[in-house]
Amino acid sequence: MPLRFDTLGNAAGLSSVPFVDRLRQAEAGDKYAQYSVAESYAAGAGVPKNDAEAVRWCLRAAHNGIAAAQTSMGYLYKHGIMGVPKEYGEAVRWFSAAADQKFPLAQYRLAQMYQSGSGVPLDYARAADLLGQAAAQGLAQARNSLGMAYERGMGVPRNPTEAFNLYRLAAEQGQPEAQHNLGVMYLEGKGTQRNYPDALKWFTEAASSGIMEAHRALGHIYEFGIGVAQDPVRAAAFYRTAAEQGLVTAQLELGYLYRTGKGVQQDYFEAAKWFRKAAEQGHPIGENMIGYMYSRGEGVSRDYRQAADWFQKASEHHYALAQLNLGFLYQSGLGVRLNYSQAYMWFALAAKSRPDGRHALEALTQIMTKAQLRDGQTRLSAWASHHDLEVAAGKAEAIDPDSYAAAGQP
Q1: pLDDT tens, position by position, 112-147
Q2: Cystine design at 308: which of 78, 129, 266, 335 (Cβ 3.0–4.6 Å)?
């Protein structure tokens, strides 16, 4: 992807100077002209686009202390673009050089490196400190990221009110991710009073800027009539926009609408298509749902082997409903070899968070031999050990992938 150089805000007053004159100044050692020339080569503005020349002049400006150029070099090294190798250590070095000059975008990007442990040890507290410095200078992205840190308690004490305030500041600056996050806070009443009209307002703003999570949130609002008249047709349109862009939760929601005929004409084929797309992204609900469709022959030919494979994938992701479904297949010998001990293991895992798992486990144990029961318990212990779970303590929990509106198996 092309680099978007960090601008100098025309501080050097060079935007109206012809490129040939800026190039002459750059060659004479003018550091501001060097960075301006780099921007022109990167964008192909007034000169043919030339990544190599853009990087060369950006590097000269960075060595001459231009913080924006240093930040751009860090970005190049972080992403390995425009002919620059991906080297996190070099990215950190350049971000740090600019951050030492109190350049807010560099502080923000250096914080990202600490949050991910890229080129530096993972350090949420250091990241939060850098974000705070950038946010204090008014950088909207930093305010949004610092809000996320306060919402989640990453490097700072968990504080939903502070998160809300930071999201609001960034949202009012037009930061799309913050607009979505602010919508969530209003929708769920986190850090503020629940306010559905304001949630709708900020989700709409974020969606207009292409935030797919906001499209999905609007779909949720219209599907369930939260502060608006219920409109499943409109909900489906919002879900589709996000689903077509690959947002896995929207793919699940759209699949569920097609399966139930809510807002769209009921179509099991379309439902299976969207569940499969979610499953192929590794989402356990999608894996379970496409397995469920195979087990029933809905939108696909009935195939218990395929059902078992997908239930297995979701079960390995600790999704309790899939573990229950897989247990039933082993109990009945559908798609897999009949095996009460294996069924026992999956039922026991599902039982930690599902009453129907406990019921299935109790019923199965009534027909198991002592040898089968011992084998099942051995399998359960081995699985729990391999997955670092304390099954006896009830820590094999089902996944709650979203704070709102997760499509599920009926």
Answers
A1: 999 999 999 999 999 999 999 999 999 999 999 999
A2: 335
Question: CB within 8 A of 47, min separation 6: which ones?
Answer: 19, 40, 41
Q: What is the pLDDT of residue 387?
A: 85
pLDDT band at 388; cut points 50, 70, 90: confident
Residue 218 and residue 207: Cα distance in Å, rounded? Answer: 8
Long-range pairs for 164-170 at CB < 8 Å and ≥24 separation? 164/190, 164/191, 164/192, 165/191, 166/135, 167/143, 169/140, 169/143, 170/140, 170/141, 170/143, 170/144
∠ CA 308-311-315, rounded to 5°? 135
Distance CA 254, CA 251 (A): 5
pLDDT higher than threshold 60 for residue 403: no
pLDDT value of position 14: 67
In the CATH scheme, what architecture does the domain 139-210 have?
A: Alpha Horseshoe (1.25)
CATH of 1-122, picked from 3.40.50.1010, 1.20.1600.10, 1.10.3430.10, 1.25.40.10, is 1.25.40.10
* Predicted TM-score (pTM) of this structure: 0.87
As annotated, the residues of the chain forming the CATH 1.25.40.10 domain(s) are 1-122, 139-210
Instruction: Give me the percent of the chain exceeding a pLDDT of 90.
Output: 89
Between 386 and 361, where is the model more confident?
361
